[in-house]
Write a structure and sequence with these properties.
By secondary structure, the protein is α+β, with helices and mostly antiparallel strands. It contains 11 helices and 24 strands. The strands form 5 sheets. Strands 1, 2, 7, 8, 9, 10, 18 and 19 form an 8-stranded mixed sheet that branches. A 7-stranded mixed sheet has the order 5-4-13-14-15-12-16, covered by helices on one side. A 4-stranded mixed sheet has the order 22-21-23-24, covered by helices on one side. β4 and β5 form a beta hairpin.
């Protein structure tokens, strides 16, 4: 962990729960925010009104970018181990019933004969949310976060210095006060905080028709052996839908079109499966409607929205969950820098400037992909982003805590092809920096700032470099990249002293209106 935050001293009041940052919401975004903040040495308290983490499988895919974030936090191995049940379940499948379904070939990112591109130090992970959340909760507690479930946020107000909250202990009905320098609202799509602050949402609204998720148990290991899959499209006329693997053996979710919940689900499931499944047990039936909505602003004073509180989108490849994890990663280092006195509070304006367009991009892509899901393999939409753009978080921020790159003003990051080149506002391209292929360029960033210097790069004239310099051989001669703690390229050029000036300038007063501002 980096240096501890040192906020202004204040009188200790034993009746008030006190923290640098208060997080409301104990799902993926909230728990990841707690972990990122502890990684940066911030005192954090998380409250969640539920008694437990999610009892539902919900999102089941962590993109490579999310795994890179957990790698930085030292948790990638733990997550991969928890995901072992679905290791190798990367294929899609399709058929009239599960028994008749055939495994489909894996998507190939490159044209036949082209060299494979090593895009990330971490593979994606298939893991159900009800497995992942307890892992993250335990890790947050181990990292020193105060985590309180059965604790509901009832009210809040803020002034120039602090956020004050009223909390309800749902186990005994007692009420408590909490104070923090900042509040991260990760309390869901219809959470208390966004609605209390009166922050509206924009977007398409409902996408597609209503659906019902039927979560059930049945030992289908023998049925799927040799045809393991992530998602299986079922086209039986009496039981159309999609079957998702939760553990690849006993736990499954059947997504049925239409919003009707009062049906003979065991009979319908057996029709879709094409086998008797005598041990089939329906655990829950939940109707849902996909939506595409993004908050009109992600920040309100000392309150910042993250995860579903900031954006909701169709569940294509768990885009919502992964976007929420990226929100937490972006916000965490900025809060830490301000709390330590290293950055002006204006740095936090860049959170909305960066993450709201990123959230809109992910929501739009998810909506369009869901609308054309049946045709993605046979007739993909050429205007959709390259899958790696989503998988490694290659969206380019064009406003925020970024310095100008005049030489690349007419060279934006491509979207329909994957061609990372260290452009300002993008995640640093992954390259292995050791012969053993264990250390990536992404490992060179965080929790502090870093300067990647290509061959023959000049030495800075300043006596003290406020960032860690790493000499690398994949950049053009003389070129340097300034990396933020979240592995985003903040500056690109050939003068290391200009990188120092960019670093200092961004922390004092980051540009929030566009690259080059």
């Amino acid at each position: 962990m980096s240096g501890r935050c040192t906020p202004k001293p204040r009188a200790h009041r034993p009746d008030v729960l006190d923290a640098d940052v208060l997080i409301t919401g104990g799902g993926l975004a909230g728990l990841t925010a707690a972990l990122v903040l502890r990684h940066h040495g911030v005192a954090v308290t998380l409250v969640e009104k539920r008694s437990t983490t999610s009892p539902q499988p919900k999102a089941r895919r962590l993109h490579m970018r999310s795994m890179e974030i957990y790698r930085e936090l030292g948790l990638a191995g733990l997550v991969h181990d928890a995901a072992r049940d679905l290791a190798g379940h990367d294929h899609m499948a399709a058929g009239r019933t599960l028994a008749e379904a055939e495994q489909l070939p894996l998507w190939q990112p490159m044209a036949a004969g082209a060299p494979l591109v090593d895009v990330s130090p971490e593979p994606p992970s298939l893991i159900a949310q009800d497995i992942l959340e307890p892992v993250l909760r335990a890790a947050a507690v181990d990292a020193g976060a105060t985590v309180r479930f059965d604790t509901e946020l009832l009210g809040l107000d803020q002034d120039e210095d602090r956020v004050r909250a009223e909390l309800l202990d749902r186990t005994d009905g007692s009420r408590h006060r909490a104070e923090a320098r900042y509040l991260v609202a990760a309390d869901g799509a219809r959470g208390f905080v966004r609605e209390t602050l009166g922050i509206g949402r924009s977007g398409e609204g409902a996408v597609g028709r209503p659906n019902v998720n039927v979560y059930f148990r049945a030992d289908l290991a023998d049925v799927v052996r040799g045809r393991e899959f992530n998602l299986c499209q079922i086209d039986h006329p009496d039981a159309p839908g999609a079957l998702a693997s939760v553990d690849g053996r006993r736990r499954w979710v059947f997504m049925s079109p239409g919003g009707e919940t009062d049906r003979d689900w065991p009979a319908l499931l057996r029709t879709a499966l094409g086998v008797p499944a005598p041990d089939l047990d329906v655990l829950s039936v939940l109707p849902w409607q996909a939506e595409m909505l993004v908050a009109d602003r992600f920040s309100h004073g000392r309150v910042h929205l993250a995860g579903d509180a900031a954006h909701v989108m169709p569940p294509y490849a768990a885009s919502g969950a992964n976007t929420g994890i990226a929100d937490a990663h972006n916000l965490g280092w900025k809060l830490a820098a301000v709390l330590r006195g290293e950055a002006a509070p204006a740095l936090l304006d860049s959170y909305d400037a960066e993450r709201r367009p990123a959230g809109w991009f992910a929501a739009d892509e998810s909506s369009r992909r869901m609308a054309s899901f049946q045709n993605l393999a046979s007739a993909p939409d050429p205007t959709l982003a390259h899958p790696y753009i989503l998988a490694v978080g290659a969206f380019q921020h064009t406003a925020g805590a970024l310095a100008s790159d005049p030489d690349a003003a007419d060279d934006p990051e491509p979207v329909t092809e994957f061609a990372p080149a260290g452009r300002v506002g993008t995640r640093v391209p992954h390259r292995w920096v050791d012969a053993a292929r264990t250390r990536s360029t992404l490992d060179l960033a965080g929790p502090g700032w870093s300067l990647l210097a290509g061959p023959e790069a000049a030495a800075p004239r300043t006596d003290r470099l406020p960032v860690h310099r790493h000499d690398v051989d994949f950049l053009p001669a003389g070129q340097c990249l300034l990396l933020r703690p979240d592995q985003i390229v903040a500056w690109r050029g050939t003068d290391p002293d200009a990188a120092v000036e960019a670093h200092n300038g961004l922390l004092r007063a980051p540009a929030a209106s566009g690259i080059g501002t």
